[in-house]
Amino acid sequence: MKTCFLVVGLILLVAALWTEACSNPAAPVPVAVVRITPDSATLAMAETTQLTATPEDASGHPVPDRAVTWRSSDGAVATVSGKGLVAAVTAGKATITATSEQQSGSATITVSTGPLASVTVLPGAASLYQGDSLQLRSILRDAVGDTLSGRSVAWSTSAANVATVSAAGLVKGVAIGRVTISATSEGKQGNAILAVLQAPIVGNIYIGNLPGELAPGATLQLHAFFRDFNGNALPGSAVTWSSDSTRLATVDPTTGVVTGIAGGVATITAQADRFSPGHGSLYVLSLASVTETDLGDLGGGTATAHGINNGGVVVGVSTTTSGSNHAFRWTAGNGMVDLGTLGGASSYAFAINEVGQIAGGSVTASGAWHAFLWSTAQGMQDLGILPGGTSSGGIDINGAGEVVGSSDDGSGALRAVRWSAAGVIEQLWADTAQAQGINDAEQVVGTAFATSEVCYTSGCDFVTNPFAFSWTAAGGLVDLGLGWNSDAIAINSRGDIVGDLLGPGTNATTAYLKSAAGSLQVLAFLPGGSYGVATAVNTNGQVAGVARSVSFYAPHPVFWLDANTVELLSVSTGSAFGVNDLQQIVGTVTESGRQRAKLWTLTTTSPTKPRAGAATSRRRVP
């Protein structure tokens, strides 16, 4: 009886538990994503493919036994069964969608007329120039030759250094050579053989501001101009710049800004597609090893130094606070001192001898220019004029205090003159002339003018030309034989003469030194230049003056150690006018638009023993 009750109890307990379970079933996991595999397919017409839809929960785990419905976006292209079997109908694209519990996934079906059999690239062979582009196209066909569409195509090049190709089949020529361009689709490939040719030259490149000059450390913006073979301007193109010597000058390859590095000549090249390259010389000016001293001014901001003696005393002209030009005397101890005038507003000092006497010119109280002799003992003394004349000017002085220069004689023409140490004036030649230098042997040099008859097929004419001369009391005025348009500007104590002449075969103004023995030396130009004037010579035959590099409008002060060695004293424009035996040179340069008096002392060569009467300078009457 007890056993029976026990069995019945167990049965009732199981039944109760089963009833509880059936009345509270577990909640199903929702579908988060429906994935279709494959997600794309390409079919020929009438082909089929089986797609599989897999519902997944939020964690990406498949959830089985969920209802899935299938749908095609275009049943005219492809249909889909309730089990995901896709049937291709006609060419085109359709999207097949599988949905489960309001979540969907899709696959793209492309229907072609048939399987891809070949790829053809057109044109199959062609040529193009460097820098040009060529559009290729691919044609995809099935086994019966029908054209297929809707297939992806990948483009590639066999040599990107010869030609590149874009994803759309656009080819760009890079370098001369042959290259294969390929189009690939579904394992099939077509090729085109291309030849990249040298682009035809349509014109030339000109670098507008070369040849040019530049100081080390300075920069210059270069400009390229494009011309056809008839000289007509053409549109610009991208330019690549280069220097053949980055040790001397560098250039930005894109902007064309060039920077001077060290003295020498660098060739700058400008290149662009379809143009012959442009080349130009850049002269990086190398400065001499000098100490430069600015001599100051008399309050007006400008000054020019004209002469120096072996004691280092400098003379010249400077503006005063009133704006007038006054002669000055400069020493290292006292600086610049105003020498005053002969009663007028202006004066200038051109030369000084070894005892400190100074020659120059000044406006008198009457307003006329007169030559003067200045000394510390007597100050400024009027040297007077030729009889009948109104003006004169002193240009050079020797050790004895004899002054040379010019004076008019009332005829309107200048005459070369010499004033004795006692102040007596003497005319050196009857015709127009100017005396510019004198040495202790009383030898005078200068420039005279002569008129000659020149005849042409159309007739004859009279022409007046200058020529360099030498004068002595014994021999009178003698043509130095340097040709027309020559000048004798200075002479040293041993009889060496310097000046300028027209260079043999070039007609370029050229500095020269004619020795006392009669030999002629043509002095070197600055690199790239074709202009030089010698203005002063010391006892050792070393010469100061002015020369231009490649820029005609940029003269520079220079010093010739010998005929072949020219030293650049400043990259600023200016001139050297005087030199002594200690290799001290004086002159002027333009700084910030103003002329400044300068003293340059060479530091690379050994100074020689001073000799009396050695200092000379170039003079010009205002």
Task: Write up this protein.
With 622 residues, this protein is mainly beta. It has 4 domains: 33-112, Immunoglobulin-like (Sandwich); 116-197, Sandwich (Immunoglobulin-like); 203-272, Immunoglobulin-like (Sandwich); 292-617, 7 Propeller (Methylamine Dehydrogenase, Chain H). The chain contains 1 helix and 57 strands. The strands form 15 sheets. Strands 20, 21, 23, 24, 27 and 28 form a 6-stranded mixed sheet that branches. A hairpin with a 4-residue loop joins strand 31 and strand 32 (325-331). The longest helix has 22 residues, at 2-23. The chain is elongated, with a radius of gyration of 49 Å. The termini are far apart.
Helical stretch count? 1
Number of strands: 57
Q: Which consecutive residue ranges, at least 5 long each, have pLDDT under 50?
A: 1-23, 606-622
CATH topology of the largest domain: Methylamine Dehydrogenase, Chain H
Question: On the 0-100 scale, what is the average pLDDT?
Answer: 90
CATH architectural label of the largest domain: 7 Propeller
Distance between the termini: 158 Å
Shape: elongated
Over the alpha carbons, how many angstroms does the gyration radius reach? 49 Å
* CATH secondary-structure class of the largest domain: Mainly Beta
CATH level 4 superfamily of the largest domain: Peptidase/esterase 'gauge' domain
Whole-number count of domains: 4
What's this model, at a glance?
The protein is mostly beta strands. It has one helix and 57 strands.
